[in-house]
């Protein structure tokens, strides 16, 4: 499920880049940075957020991060300016990464470690 969310969210904007460029009055190359901002955030943040979320309660972290991920995507849809859209995409990448890091860490825990957290 996580791979599906990453792939879908990273590449769904490809088909609407001309509309994004026209709506925000930027060039097509600048509109393409919307996908880059998300993917780069995810790629660079993975090791850091995996380490930072290791002590957090898994279920609550995943639930909160996915809820905020949905909200950040709503912000993307409503972004009035290019800079806000890029910021919302970075936020979306960070939140999805947080949820997946927490979920992945919970999958690696032994049953006794899971019961303790």
From TrEMBL:
Membrane topology according to the record: Multi-pass membrane protein
The entry's keywords: Cell membrane, Membrane, Transmembrane, Transmembrane helix
Keyword Nucleus: no
Xref: SUPFAM superfamilies: MFS general substrate transporter
Domain Major facilitator superfamily (MFS) profile: 1-117
Subcellular location per the Swiss-Prot or TrEMBL entry: Cell membrane
Residues spanning the membrane: 31-52, 64-84, 90-107
Keyword Transmembrane listed: yes
Name this protein carries in UniProt: MFS transporter
Lineage: Bacteria, Pseudomonadati, Pseudomonadota, Alphaproteobacteria, Hyphomicrobiales
